[in-house]
Write a structure and sequence with these properties.
The complex is a heterodimer of chains A (643) and B (264). Chain A is mainly α and 643 residues long. Chain A has 3 domains: 281 residues, no CATH class; 51 residues, no CATH class; 190 residues, MetI-like fold (Orthogonal Bundle), CATH 1.10.3720. Chain A is built from 27 helices and 5 strands. In chain A, the strands form 2 sheets. In chain A, strands 1-3-2 form a 3-stranded antiparallel beta sheet. In chain A, a hairpin with a 4-residue loop joins strand 2 and strand 3. The longest helix of chain A has 38 residues. Chain A is extended, with a radius of gyration of 39 Å. Chain B has 2 domains: 181 residues, P-loop containing nucleotide triphosphate hydrolases (Rossmann fold), CATH 3.40.50; 70 residues, no CATH class. The mean pLDDT of chain B is 87. With 264 residues, chain B is an alpha/beta fold. Chain B has a 6-stranded mixed beta sheet, sandwiched between helices. Chain B has a 4-stranded antiparallel beta sheet with strand order 2-1-4-5, covered by helices on one side. In chain B, 41% of the residues lie in helices and 24% in strands. Chain B is globular and about 55 Å long. At the A-B interface, helix 24 and helix 25 of A face strand 6, helix 2 and helix 4 of B.
């Protein structure tokens, strides 16, 4: 069933998308109509006007889902499943042409030569100013200044076209003509001819878009794809050739040689002068190093005369134009169906970039959720929510304390002369209490969700059974209030997570520590809410109970406790929320199970689908908790606000 | 017989700002079994303090107070109390509220059910047993409070402005109900009120109290309660005698209030 759903995922998502659009439009029309027909009071600010309105809920939910489907590119994948593969081929061309394009002011503000020249000139100016602060001998200073001057003239011999040698001019012309050739190839119908059997096989054997994570099918599978794939390969060669071209004219090379000698001499000079001032000596060494580094960069020969590459730039513009021309409707898909990003090619793969990457597609999220919900797969060797067989003896060990054996009079049996071991009642009790016996197994829930749930419920349970009585007594006794107030008020304002490192160190990173942490959180909240409830009891109700013959205990149980229930239940509702938040953060800090742990591992692996899945699980669990509490509150204290 | 005897009762409160307030000074009276007493006075004359002392919620600083032969020391089931706002337990249903005192006494469930039904019948709430109290009107709530108090069969019923929060119509019905109950059960009833008309109707005896220090100012013996048992309450209120007594007491209280204002 699920496999079938994945097979027709495109249709399903497309259908849902259209259904959502229709639903939101219908709900909006209904809402508009209702506003027109509802001729109640037209006064602004009447709160009863916010009542009802399920149709706006439909619109709101549809809107969220539509935005999700749209920005995660699930819609693009549903309606144009093959587009990603073709866009990948186009991206390959972009990737191949990028080394050349980046030299020109097409995507950047300046020509690369301009940028380099600007930087080196600034460096040389800085060095010139620095020379005077080095306290060099007159001779050495003159040497340094001359060196800088020579560097300036070396730069000039790069930027002047009169020095440019014919070999370089030829190479640049070849690149230009090759780009034009590639542009021409793009215009050809059916280029580069029928795909080879091997290519077809590759195209057919590869997985489709979204079958594995963000990977996009790499090999071309359509005529347009084959064409772009082919020209991208050609372009790659051209880029490689272009990268090898250097402005190495003879004048420049001789200047570089001289500069190298001069810098070596300068280095010797400052080495021999050995200034006694360490800071000054360091400065001098730095100066010579900077000098050498500037020379190395100039030596790369990446600066060309201003007009020398205009031809290539024009060819690139032509190529870009033809590329846009040839991609046709794919440009529309790229900019409108894949909002917030695009498909990028790398050396070995194509991938989604932008919101298509970090916002998982709803259908993928559902698949991931289904996959990790499978108890045999789970996450990090632990199912999300399942059950496992657990022997009863383990539970007995947990519940029955071992010391009950010590309460039985007598000693434990000793071995006898022949080495045989016997047992007596005391040892049998001990074996029972420590769970050391054969027993059948019963299924108990297990898994990440269950672990988190259990921790919250355990912390909450202890918080309630200890916090509520204390809170009630604090609301009734001046001593209790005065004695315990400092303790609670001192630890309560500390953010629970600030306690986490300490508590987890003392009680361990497994359940004990986390439960204690949550107990602390819940305890303070329960004490305060129970206290508020107890203080809020009307004196006349207590008087009435007294006149009806109730004892102190009966008044506590039958009047003060029920009267405090609204506050206590509100406290529990708050405590659940805070505990839940604290737990997830604590699980991220340390531990090996739990939803927070899952999310933390997914974060480290940048697994966006798992991250979103955990977020959705947490949201749903929070919602379920709150709905349960709302139901309990309605059932248990229907009189709230009406007393 | 269980008469209520107050002998030289004094109540002095310490005030947190220092100094003392003489809430009750030398209050002495005897309330015989089956008498209907209403207490009237300007605010601050110690009416409620007096009631709280009789109920046993607070201890007097001087004097003696006995019910029957027993000295009053703390609250007890022999004195039932009806409060101004009902003071019902809203987490219980009507029947559970009424049954509260019997449950405390661990009465068998069958008997509880029987007596609760009886009393709901008497106060006119038959069939409302399962209804939560917060859904009922003020008058109905006060009827429940009455039933809850009476089901315990106390010797003395204390009422602290029990009808104060009700509308005029409900109030009149409740006044008849109180008279009816007084007549049928023969209980001793003490009612505190700030309504002169109510004090005249619901009192065989009427104490007017004076403030600063709180003390008994004047006692009346009135025929209106007896008349109210057989006649329509509005007819009783319409008699010339009723009008004259009302004017007399109103003037008295008016003068006390004026005196207080003058002192300030």
């Amino acid at each position: 069933m699920l496999d079938l759903m994945f097979e027709y995922r495109g249709f399903i998502v497309g259908f849902i998308f259209l259904a959502l659009i229709i639903a939101s439009i219908a709900a909006t029309i209904f809402g508009r109509k209702l506003i027109r027909t509802e001729k109640t009071d037209a006064v602004f600010g009447n709160p009863s006007r916010a009542l009802g309105g399920w149709h706006w809920v439909v619109t709101g939910v549809s809107f969220i889902l539509l935005v999700w489907i749209y920005y995660s590119w699930d819609m693009a994948r549903a309606f144009y499943p093959k587009s990603a593969n073709e866009l990948c081929q186009i991206a390959k061309l972009d990737f191949a042409v990028n080394p050349i394009r980046s030299v020109f002011p097409l995507d950047n503000e300046y020509l690369r030569s301009t940028t380099l020249l600007k930087r080196e000139k600034e460096q040389l100016n800085n060095l010139e100013n620095e020379v005077n602060n080095l306290e060099l001998s007159e001779e050495a200073q003159a040497h340094a200044e001359e060196t800088i001057q020579l560097m300036r003239s070396a730069l000039k011999s790069l930027t002047s076209s009169e020095f440019l040698d014919s070999e370089t001019v030829n190479k640049l012309a070849v690149v230009e003509s090759q780009i034009k050739e590639i542009t021409n190839n793009l215009t050809k119908e059916g280029y580069p001819g029928e795909p080879s059997a091997e290519q077809v096989k590759l195209a057919e054997s590869q997985e489709r878009w979204g079958d594995t994570g963000n990977e996009i099918p790499l090999h071309p599978s359509s005529p347009r794809g084959y064409k772009f794939d082919a020209v991208a390969k050609e372009m790659k060669e051209v880029s490689r050739e272009f990268g090898r071209i250097k402005n190495n004219n003879s004048t420049f090379l001789s200047q570089v040689d001289e500069l190298k000698d001069r810098i070596a001499i300068f280095k010797e000079v400052i080495k021999s002068s050995k200034s006694s001032d360490k800071a000054l000596a360091d400065k001098q060494v730095d100066f010579s190093k900077t000098l050498r580094r500037v020379l190395q960069r100039i030596d790369d020969g990446l600066i060309f005369p201003p007009q020398s590459m205009e031809g290539i730039q024009a060819a690139l513009v032509g190529l870009e134009k033809e590329k846009n021309n040839q991609q046709g409707g794919l440009g529309f898909i790229d900019s409108w169906m894949m909002p917030g990003g695009t498909i990028k090619a790398g050396t070995t793969a194509c991938s989604e970039q932008g919101s298509g990457r970090w916002l998982p597609k709803p259908s993928d999220t559902l698949r991931t959720l289904t996959r990790i919900s499978d108890p045999d797969i789970g996450y990090k060797g632990h199912p999300l929510l399942w059950y496992k067989q657990k022997p009863v003896s383990e539970m007995v060990d947990l519940i029955v304390p071992d010391f009950i054996a010590a309460l039985i009079p007598g000693g434990y049996p000793q071995y006898s002369e022949d080495g045989s071991l016997s047992s007596n009642f005391k040892s049998k009790v001990y074996n029972f209490a420590s769970g050391n016996f054969e027993s059948f197994s019963v299924p108990v829930p297990s898994g990440h969700i269950w672990d988190s749930l259990l921790r919250v419920l355990a912390g909450l349970f202890f918080g309630i059974i200890l916090g509520v009585p204390l809170g009630l007594f604090m609301g009734l006794s001046r001593f209790c209030k005065g004695f315990f107030d400092p303790l609670i008020e001192l630890y309560r304002p500390v953010p629970p997570l600030a306690w986490a490192p300490l508590i987890l160190t003392i009680f361990g990173i497994q359940d004990d520590g986390k439960i204690f942490l949550l107990f602390m959180v819940a305890f303070a909240i329960m004490v305060i809410s129970a206290r508020t409830g107890a203080t809020g009891t009307q004196l006349s109700k207590i008087h009435a109970a007294h006149s009806l013959g109730a004892s102190s205990r009966q008044i506590l149980r039958r009047v003060i406790l029920p009267n405090s229930l609204p506050e206590i239940l509100t406290g529990i509702r708050i405590a659940i929320g805070v505990c839940w938040g604290t737990l997830v953060a604590a699980e991220m800090l340390a531990g090996t199970t739990g939803i927070g742990f899952v999310e933390n591992v997914a974060r480290k692996q940048s697994d966006y689908e798992i991250i979103w899945t955990t977020i959705i699980i947490l949201g749903l669990l929070g919602l379920i908790f709150d709905l349960i509490m709302r139901w309990v509150i309605n059932k248990v204290i229907p009189w709230r606000g009406k007393g | 017989m269980s008469d209520l005897v107050l002998d030289n009762l004094n109540m002095v409160f310490n005030v947190s700002t220092g100094g003392t307030v003489h809430a009750l000074k030398d209050v002495s009276f005897t309330l015989k079994t089956g008498e209907l007493l209403s207490v009237l006075g300007p605010s601050g004359c110690g009416k409620t303090t007096l009631l709280n002392i009789i109920a046993g919620f607070i201890r007097p600083t001087g004097g003696e107070i006995t019910l029957g032969d027993e000295e009053i020391d703390g609250p007890g089931v022999n004195r039932g109390m009806v409060f101004q706002q009902g003071a019902l337990f809203e987490w219980l249903t009507v029947a559970e509220n009424v049954a509260f005192g019997l449950e405390i006494k661990k009465t068998p469930q069958a008997e509880i059910d029987k007596r609760v039904d009886e009393w709901l019948e008497i106060v006119g709430l038959a069939g409302f047993g399962h209804v939560p109290t917060y859904q009922l009107s003020g008058g109905m709530q006060q009827r429940i409070a009455l039933a809850r108090c009476l089901i315990n069969d106390p010797d003395l019923i204390l009422m602290d402005e029990p009808l104060g929060a009700l509308d005029a119509l409900t109030r009149e019905k409740m006044q008849s109900l109180v008279l009816k109950i007084w007549k049928e059960t023969g209980k001793t009833i003490m009612i505190i009120t700030h309504s002169v008309e109510e004090a005249l109707l619901l009192g065989e005896r009427l104490f007017v109290m004076a403030p600063r220090p709180g003390r008994l100012h004047k006692e009346y013996r009135l025929p209106f309660a007896e008349q109210g048992l057989t006649n329509d309450l509005r007819d009783v209120k319409g008699t010339k005698e009723f009008g004259e007594t009302r004017e007399e007491i109103l003037t008295m209280i008016w003068n006390m209030e004026e005196e207080i204002m003058g002192q300030v």
